[in-house]
Specification:
CCD27 protein; coiled coil; 2 domains; CC-FHA_domain; mainly alpha; rod-shaped
Length: 196
């Protein structure tokens, strides 16, 4: 947004400069018209003189005026050429600034779209995280119930003493393995005596 504002300010400055140059160009053209009017006024004045005076005066004044006019026209043409060149450059700069404004706005729009997509992905990840937490709590609860059942089954066997402190998973497995081994031993003994 700052880049767009900066480009727009530059464009306004360039357009202001363009208006100033055009105003100067109009002023030069006006001065040229005034010179032509002065020449016409001098020409009208000569009609009131005698023919001989008129011819002499005309020759002198025409030479002087022609020289002045030629010099003024040359200067004004040079100034107009410079101003036309500057106008062209300013128009190109304005066009470039407008293109940059459009480009910057497009980039800003893309950034906003990307930001929305990232926001959407973040919300989706948060939702998945919540679902995972719920599933983990459910699994943890099931595992704890299963573990308690194992402990209860293990230590409800006759001859097994109740645990004095909270058991680790290894201790529970060890107690279960002991019961399994004892039962296998008993089965072997019963089989050797022919009992079903």
């Amino acid at each position: 947004t700052g880049a767009i504002s900066s480009l727009q300010r530059q464009m306004e400055i360039q357009e202001s400069e363009l208006r100033r140059i055009r105003s100067e160009k109009e002023l030069l053209q006006k001065q040229l018209r005034e010179r032509e009017a002065q020449l016409q006024a001098v020409s009208d004045k000569f009609y009131s003189l005698t023919e001989e005076q008129r011819q002499e005066e005309i020759m002198v004044m025409m030479q002087e005026e022609n020289h002045n006019l030629q010099q003024a026209v040359t200067e004004q043409e040079s100034q107009l050429a410079e101003q036309n060149k500057l106008i062209t450059e300013l128009q190109e700069t304005i066009s470039q600034l407008r293109a940059e404004v459009v480009s910057t706005r497009l980039q800003l729009l893309k950034h906003k779209q990307a930001q929305k997509e990232i926001q959407s992905q973040a919300e989706e990840l948060q939702h998945k995280e919540l679902q995972t937490r719920v599933a983990l709590e459910h699994i943890s609860s099931k595992f704890e119930r299963y573990r308690n059942k194992i402990i209860q089954a293990t230590f409800s066997v006759e001859g097994i003493q109740d645990p004095q402190a909270e058991l680790t998973d290894d201790e529970v497995l060890e107690a279960m393995q002991k019961i399994i081994n004892e039962r296998l031993e008993l089965q072997q003994k019963l089989k050797s005596k022919g009992s079903k």
